[in-house]
Amino acid sequence: MDYLERFAIPIKGMNIGVHEYQFSIENEFFNHFEDSYIKKGEYDVKLLVDRKERIIVLDFEIAGTYNSKCDRCLTNIDIPSVIDYKVYLKYGMVVDNKELDDVVYIDEKDSSFNLSSIIHQMIILSLPMSNTYDCENDPNPKCDFEMLDYLENQNIIEENEEDTINPIWEKLKKDFNKN
Predict the structure, then answer these.
(1) Which helix (H) or strand (E) holds 167?
(2) Domain-by-domain residue ranges, the chain?
């Protein structure tokens, strides 16, 4: 059985009403997606499926962490993310050319629906712009304090260098202003 098949839910023959599913996402999940930004991560997925006559509402609650290098100190850290999102499965063909991010059209002949790509997309889209976390409030921060001290010292050195005027630039400014 293909690893991603465990993320398929049966839709044919599903009774009308609410059904609950739970999935665990580990590193292997991300390895099945080519060029995935995440290589290491652990997420728990809770899914409520509300089956109606002609529509299926998928209500996702995803919580977990992914491992990445900190943008401040370059040490490996686990960055948390929480996702709440609804996706609607509709039977039939697309009526107009408008693509809706939260509506997926499915064929009435389909017996199951694989959620793996939707889960992967939701996790990737939930990633923060910068890979940092609130390490100041962490009792045991994973920060590389040597790197942070080095960067702070570099900033001070650069500020001091900006204050001193280089005579070469002064000469060029004079020559440029003559013309």
Answers:
(1) helix 167-178
(2) 3-135, 145-178
